[in-house]
Amino acid sequence: MSESQSFFDKVYSIVRCIPFGRVTSYGAIAKALGSSRSARMVGYAMNASHGMQDIPAHRVVNRNGMLTGKFHFEGSQLMQQLLENEGIKVKNNQVIDFEKHFWDPSS
DNA sequence: GGGTTGACAACAG
DNA sequence: GCTGTTGCCAACC
């Protein structure tokens, strides 16, 4: 139970640690988990995070800074709304100044 | 136990 | 520069 957390739990742990007004990418999280190539798993874990209120999945976007998973939210505009609420500008499902708002999970 | 899926990422054409 | 395909790895059927 100490370090035996599943891949999902690890992802949740990192996503939950994303500071306010910051975003990160799936690949960055996957890399932080030690599997830089399991970015898809990160997204899959997010899919299960729907029941997790402590998982700000809206702060997680793809490496391109695009809100790929916005369709998985209850409202198509919910994800963008949350990001804008944190001071992050979103245009056409894409985060503006993604690099500036990017947060390294290893940090 | 095997095959398919997937909120991505990297490479090739 | 953009579109298409492959790779990864764990979960789901």
Structure commentary:
α1 (7-16) packs across α3 (39-48) and α2 (26-32) packs across α3. The strands form 2 sheets. The chain has a two-stranded parallel sheet. A two-stranded antiparallel sheet has the order 3-4. It has one domain (7-101): Orthogonal Bundle (Arc Repressor Mutant, subunit A). It is 36% helix and 7% strand. The chain is globular. β3 (90-91) and β4 (94-95) form a beta hairpin. It is mostly helical and 107 residues long. One of its GO terms (molecular function) is methyltransferase activity. Residues 7-88 form the Methylated-DNA-[protein]-cysteine S-methyltransferase DNA binding domain. This is Methylated-DNA--protein-cysteine methyltransferase. InterPro entries: ATL_DNA_repair (IPR052520), MethylDNA_cys_MeTrfase_DNA-bd (IPR014048), MethylDNA_cys_MeTrfase_DNAb (IPR036217), WH-like_DNA-bd_sf (IPR036388). Keywords: DNA damage, Methyltransferase, Transferase.
How confident is the prediction overall: mean pLDDT?
89
- What radius of gyration results from the CA coordinates? 13 Å
Under CATH, the topology can be stated as Arc Repressor Mutant, subunit A
> So what's the oligomer here?
single chain
Shape: globular
CATH class: Mainly Alpha
Count the helices. How many? 5
The main sheet orders its strands as 1-2
Helix content: 25-40%
* CATH architectural name: Orthogonal Bundle
Low-confidence stretches: none
Overall number of strands = 4
